[in-house]
Amino acid sequence: MDNSFFLISIIVPCYNASYYVKEVLESIQSQTHYNIECIVINDGSTDNTLEIINCFSDERFHIYNQKNKGLSDTRNFGLEKASGDFIFFCDSDDLLPSNALESLISEYTGKEDIIVGKTSTYSWEEKRNVSFLPQPKEKQRLENKNTEILFKKITEDLSPIAQNKLYKSSFLKENNLTFLSGIYHEDELWFFETMFQAKNVVFIPDITYFYTIDNAQSITKKNSDKNLLGYLSVIQTIYNNYYLQYPEQSNIAYYIAYLKKIIIGNYKHYSNYSNTAIHKMETIFKEVNPKFNDNISLKSIEKKYFRYINDLSLKDAETIKKEYFNNPVNSLRKYYKILRFSILNLN
Questions:
Q1: Within a domain: 163
Q2: What's the pTM?
Q3: Pairing between strand 8-14 and 86-89?
Q4: Is there a single domain that holds both residue 147 and residue 82?
Q5: Structural element, H or E, at residue 5
Q6: Could you read off the pLDDT of 10-27 as tens digits, one per residue?
Q7: What is the Cα–Cα distance from 123 to 104, expressed in whole angstroms?
Q8: Integer Cα distance of 264 and 260 in angstroms
Q9: Which of 192, 217, 242 is the last residue of a domain?
Q10: Which residues does residue 209 pair with via DSSP β-bridges, in sequence order?
């Protein structure tokens, strides 16, 4: 199958990215898959980002300028403007190896909704690969009939980033998939919604993205009320729009508990949230209280652990601190070890 004729729309939101964006766009411009359109959106930058991106005269580059609206709205604007057969998101401080898009599109057989490449974490200052974001080690093609990828996310902690995934445009349009406006951690919700709807997904072992980890301005480096409230919006949305709407999908309850674990873990490491935000966390944790079903393809130990996390989340913040922060059973790995040790001693 000759996939070289497929048009790939690359959406690049830019906000105060003058230090990075020239190299980023050059890495897109040099792609061996030539049939691209690069939608570059200056989201109200206060530095000279717009001046830099305007220097790109490549007819495949479409440049837009807008008042600051945030990442979700900017990506959604890019989706509106995109005319490609496939969509690819690239942040303005990340890089693509020259064969990234060719490697991804070559895996398309006519049925895949999403094609996922391997992401290397990258030190911009040192110009070197550091590690990799969680990803299956071997190529995997999944029909995702029972949303198996959500299970893989829970048990293997797959990276939720929207970048480095090739999305079939018709799949996104048919399912009305867009980013939730005005929150942090919009990728967590986007990952859930896309993988909940996708019928066929392939993970490939090729490195197709360099994810910069030493940008001090990245929101992932900041842990404030907005970060906490962003995660809370994610679990509220999943609970209201999916758990309550699809009661037969018992895996959603476990996914919510998994996200609660992330929130509690962040609270452990970054306790600089305001009292108002912490009270909000307590309130939403109690409101988002799903029921759990055993008829699900998780190990017994995994089911017990995520139920434990949900039970813990229903308590007040101080109790969560005492039980989770000081309890050796604050990860699935530790939970498994302790339970196994207890069983051996009983025998």
A1: yes
A2: 0.92
A3: parallel
A4: yes
A5: none
A6: 999 999 999 999 999 999
A7: 23
A8: 6
A9: 217
A10: 119
